[in-house]
Amino acid sequence: PLAAAPVWADTAAPPAGEAMHQNANAKAPPMTEAEFTRGKQIYFERCAGCHGVLRKGATGKALTPDITLARGTEYLKTFIKYGSPAGMPNWGTSGEFNDQQVDLMARYVQQEPPTPPEFGMQDMLATWKVQVPVDKRPRRKENQLDISNLFSVTLRDAGEIALIDGHSKQIVSVIKTGYAVHISRLSKSGRYLYVIGRDGKINLVDLWMAKPDSVAEIRIGLEARSVETSKYRGYDDKLAVAGAYWPPQYVIMDGASLKPLKIVGTRGMTVDNEYHPEPRVASIVASHYKPEFVVNAKETGKIMMVDYSDLANLKTTTIDAAKFLHDGGFDASGRYFMVAANASNKVAVVDTKLDKLAALVDVGKTPHPGRGANFTDPQYGPVWATSHLGDDSISLVGTDPEKHKAQAWKVVRTLKGQGGGSLFIKTHPQSANLWVDTVFNPDAKLSQSVAVFDIKHLDKGFSMLPIGEWSGLSDGAKRVLQPEYNKAGDEVWFSVWSAKDKQSAIVVVDDKTRKLKAVIKDPRLVTPTGKFNVYNTQHDIY
Ligand code: DHE
Fold first, then answer.
1. Secondary structure of 118-167 in HEC code, one letter for each residue
2. Could you tell me the CA-to-CA distances from 231 to 70, 364, 503, 540, 541 in Å, in that order?
3. Is the ipTM of this complex over 0.95?
4. Predicted local distance difference test score (pLDDT) of residue 60
5. Is the dihedral of CA 403, 539, 183, 473 positive or negative?
6. In this structure, how many other beta carbons lie within 10 angstroms of the beta carbon of residue 189?
7. Residues that are catalytic
8. What is the Å distance from ligand 1's center to 409 Cα?
9. Which whole number is the average pLDDT over 412-420?
């Protein structure tokens, strides 16, 4: 039999005589080559997303050796173990890292960061597989499911998604996807589901199959976060696009087969006209006004309106916004795209009809909206809201330049939530509730609960619902995150997220009564995080 992979780097001191890692800077603390390899893997899985592959910083601080060597191993260990209220997760106390791994990572980030290889067309084609060719796929829906009310649930550390029926709350299918899988998006018709892993692997799932499954897959880079599909009239289900963190590039693909058609690099100048070697592609949305993808380059702060109607003569309008673009969503009209420039403490507003920056709005510290929440403020009219990773505030931005001109693109109201470390905020056109999680707050009481505001009485403050407790799980981190509505808008689903070796759950709350409606527990529900209701995701309803 094959020997198991060596795991000693996680659990014990390295054996004597192990080859040492040769670092460019002799001041870096010693590490063996095996420890360095393990550190590289953990860094990729847990740290690179915020701090960057080259560690130049974005959502998280820069971690280049000039900075980390000055901090020293003990300081770094404390920070990694306990986290910070500004958004650094408590990797040690949450149980994700043991003390040996904390020590390993404190030493790893003091070494020079290795530069990963590029990943071009030949590399992509070598990973591209069409499991079920288009002409072998169903001609009509072959299952009895109400696919518009399915939820695609990210099973982060299993590298899988679970499709859960919104009515019966039963798992319909568990599908293998990319590593540390991240988000799901829908094609315009709602038939095809696109899932992307942090390893840049995309799976295309056909929801019409008797048992929905992957029909094509490809890797578009070594590290990635975003995928989207063409939504403009006439381009239904035609194209897909995915953004990579490494190499910094985006890729336009055939929507039905994932065949890569066009790769565009994003390296270049920032909005301050300084060169950046790693402008990672963060969120991507599809315009409803033009055949365009809205591609956000994080480190340069540039928003690219990419016209997909002629890929051979690609036209792109580049909008200078603000550095550290990350996540966002449309306003209720679907015309304005609101995107957090997180470490700039701003939200950029893009007018997708005119392809222009409508405004840069100053909000709280490190905004993190997910796709944000749209509702009508009783006093100020239509607003889009974001919560923050870095403070306890919730900023409501006016979004109606026609009928509420004085309020448009201004923070009209700031609510006080239950703490920092918030990632997601949500409501639904049928709901009078605004839900705000505090998933990365280091205080377990806050990370295991959610705040809910009454939209009609925002000045009354929030109520706290102990979702973690309601899950009935006995131990684990039980982080509560990402409220997501069902299609009707009368139920809201929360993930209760514990480590891979602990039980997790999904808690369903009745939106009107705010009472517990159901708890979904299943041994297959390993580390559930994001949940994507087919109808709401397809139609940008949030
Ligand atoms: Fe996410 C969306 C990047 C950590 C859950 N995440 C996004 C988007 C980006 C992003 C760019 C927007 C995609 C789009 O709309 O096209 N996420 C990153 C990171 O760089 C970061 C900070 C660190 C990392 O190492 O990846 C990161 N994200 C996380 C998590 O730790 C979360 C909480 C759990 C998980 O599953 O890994 C997480 N991210 C999510 C979810 C969304 C998301 C659930 C989609 C929200 C939505 O409602 O659309």
1. CCCHHHHHHHCEECCCHHHCCCCCCCCCCHHHEEEEEEHHHCEEEEEECC
2. 49, 32, 38, 11, 14
3. yes
4. 87
5. positive
6. 12
7. 47, 50-51, 88, 326, 368
8. 25
9. 97
